Amino acid sequence: MATEDKNRATAAAILPLVGGAANVGSIAHCMTRLRLGLHDRSLVDDEALKALPAVMGVVEDETYQIVLGPGTVARVTPEFERLVAEAAPTPGNAPTASASADDLAAEGAAIKARQKARNATPFKLFLRKIANIFVPLIPALIGCGIIAGLNGLLVNLGWLPAVTPALAAMASGFMALIAVFVGYNTAKEFGGTPILGGAVAAIIVFPGVANIDAFGQTLSPGQGGVLGALGAAVLAVYVEKWCRRWVPEALDVLVTPTLTVLISGLVTIFGLMYVAGEISSAIGTFADWLLSNGGASAGFVLGGLFLPLVMLGLHQALIPIHTTLIEQQGYTVLLPILAMAGAGQVGAAMAVYFRLPRNESIRRTIRSALPAGLLGVGEPLIYGVSLPLGRPFVTACVGGAFGGGFVGLFHQLGDTVGSTAIGPSGWALFPLVDGNHGLGTTIAIYGAGLLVGYVAGFLATYFFGFSKDLLTEFNVSQDPAPSTVAATGGPHPSPHPASPGDPDGTDPGSPEKTPAGV
Predict the structure, then answer these.
(1) Which residues contact 189 (CB under 8 A, 6 or more apart)?
(2) Which parts pass through the membrane (predicted)?
């Protein structure tokens, strides 16, 4: 089957299981998930969805999220959109709920209400907006980061000297203008005109700012970076909205964009660039100081807490920090440490596999999800194995802590390991690692950190991840599978056998897999 036919078939299989086109209110996707705004959650057949070969799992948050994995989701989403558009729902053709839907409707509504109450705080909604600004930039960061790594390798080897300048231009061009893209996305996310946000942010990278003095110093092109661009674009949105309220309609097309760029631009040049530049420098200085002076302990804490941060949706606050570090130093030193959380998750899943030899359902889920976990796609293992079981999620965090502590220790000893892009994790991060020493040393430290995370997660889960009651409940041959974790955090057996790759769990609060790669 051709690739496009396969993607369309996947989309066609998903559509009826989410209640048909009439039940789909909005469609979007991120790095790994198809995000759907649904009119009636009770029309979704979760079990059938999770049984589809292409589906790694489902997560319910503000939107209903179907985990398809990187690459796949970007190809399936357009096909899904076409199918929904072709269906053109009319009155009377709304899908009918299954017989069990009425019984589950009340429970589903209660769960959704709890999740929305937990996730719809002003702070988390703000973080979600920040993530929506930066997540669309990740594909370019990855592509340019890999090209930068390839160029560095060729330069070090002295190969293809006529080609390396071109590769350097390809790798650096996007980063030189990233502030413009951040400004564009910021204005779009905050309800303004995107191009005006980009226009104001473009001031930051314009070479001519080097002729301007502010706060007793000469400005530098790019000063303030992505943080300055974000602030400038948010200001532009508020100025634009103010103008829309007060400027006469006949003059709006001339006056509003002029005042938006003029006012926001002046504040950006004579205020935001300096302030954001100081903040950006402080972030880089603090990250270096933290890992240089307390690398092992800092790495242990960061690696151990990252999975809970993802569960709470707080990991999104790290996205602009990663981007700022990449803009300043060429790589982010935090991502390889946070990626160890995924290694702990893999080790924990392997321990579960050996501790439950009679539960073929869970073992089958682990076998199907483990390759994705090794490549940094952690949702199937998290939501299908460790989180529903309870304790193994905690011991997975322990594995991530030891892996993070290992990488942090080497930073403290002078061997920096960073990533030139955000998004990938696990083995997929190898092409993006960079550091202050040779590539071989950097790769070796990162690889050894993964190994430490695997081993620590395995041992912690094998010896401490199961109570007697948990083993009695799950180490059985009736092919049970864990289901959603209840509000008390305890595991509950599902009456339905799990299908291969069925994560059979829900995310208690993560709006997005991180670009720091669980």
Answers:
(1) 129, 132, 133
(2) 133-154, 166-184, 191-210, 251-276, 296-319, 331-354, 443-464
In 3D space, the residue among 7, 2, 39 whose CA is nearest the CA of residue 22 turns out to be 39
Cβ proximity of 11 and 53 under 8 Å: no
Which letter does DSSP use for residue 517 in this model? -
Q: Which tokens belong to 219?
A: 């400005």
For residues 141, 146, 148, 149, the Cα torsion angle rounded to the nearest 10 degrees is 140
Question: Packing angle between helix 225-246 and helix 319-329, nearest 10 degrees?
Answer: 120
Task: State the Cα–Cα distance between residues 454 and 12, nearest whole angstrom.
Answer: 38
**Contact by Cβ (8 Å): 33, 98:** no
Question: Are the C-beta atoms of 414 and 402 separated by less than 8 Å?
Answer: no
pLDDT tens digits, 467-515? 888 888 888 774 444 443 333 344 444 333 333 333 333 333 343 444 4
Chain centroid, CA 310 distance in Å: 9
Q: 260 is written with which tokens?
A: 């938006």
User: CA 254 from chain center: how many Å?
Assistant: 39
Q: From CA 432, how far away is CA 141, in angstroms rounded?
A: 10
pLDDT tens per residue, range 325-366: 998 888 999 999 999 999 999 999 999 999 999 888 888 888
- What type of residue sits at position 379? E
Write the single-letter amino acid at 134. F
Give the integer Cα–Cα distance in Å for 157 and 152. 9
8 Å CB contact between 306 and 338: yes
**Predicted TM-score (pTM) above 0.90:** no
Sign of CA dihedral 145, 150, 155, 161: negative
For residues 427 and 343, what is the distance between their CA atoms, to the nearest angstrom? 10
Rounded CA-CA distance 314/478 in Å is 38
Q: Quote the crossing angle between the two packed helices 3-17 and 72-87, to the nearest 10°.
A: 60
Q: Which residues, in sequence order, are CB contacts of 269 under 8 Å at separation 6+?
A: 203, 209, 212, 214, 219
Q: Greatest CA separation found in the chain?
A: 75
The residues, ordered by sequence, that sit 6+ positions from 24 with a Cβ below 8 Å of its Cβ are 15, 18, 36, 37, 38, 39, 84
Amino acid at site 328: Q
DSSP state of 332: B
Give the whole-angstrom CA distance, residue 303 versus residue 42. 37
Sign for the pseudo-dihedral over CA of 427, 429, 432, 435 = negative
Active site residues: 30
Sign of CA dihedral 64, 66, 69, 73: negative
Q: Is residue 344 classed as helix, strand or coil in its secondary structure? A: helix
- Cβ count near 234 (within 10 Å): 22
- Give the span between the Cα atoms of 59 and 75, in whole angstroms: 20
Residue 488: strand, helix, or coil: coil
